[in-house]
Amino acid sequence: MSDLTVTLPLLETLRAQARDPGLLDLVQRHPTERSWLQLPSHDDVTMWLIAWPAGSSTDWHDHGPASGAFVVLEGTLVEHSWLGALRVCRLGVGDAREFAPDHVHDVRNTSARPAVSLHAYSPRLEAMTRYRFLGDRIEAIGVERAGEGW
Questions:
Q1: Domain count, the chain
Q2: Is the pTM of this model over 0.90?
Q3: Residue 119 annotated as part of some ligand binding site
Q4: Is 61 annotated as a binding residue?
């Protein structure tokens, strides 16, 4: 699989939810750490609203067996992804990314301003493998499960 795999129903679901004008009012903003809120989910989809203070990052991870998509609602994010080589994609308000289960990335707010994004995963997000970036490769360093810190 590749990160170019189209998951249109997931992206369409995400974009429909992103049109909710009250969405940004739900986010709890922390001045130095990312914060997130799991939104009411349906079927086999999990949605998360994430607030990104300046300088915050997810660190390198995948989403287990889940495909995913995210859209920037406020600010700017930069996605670093690994597909045998480093790829960097800058995303502004309204920009979206979708990805297959084997996608490994580190999403960052490298700006001096906060950002907010909406994320969707299918099947439901149950686990994430964490990785270490070694310049010319990545190395798995552990697995986090839902309910253990997120």
A1: 1
A2: no
A3: no
A4: yes
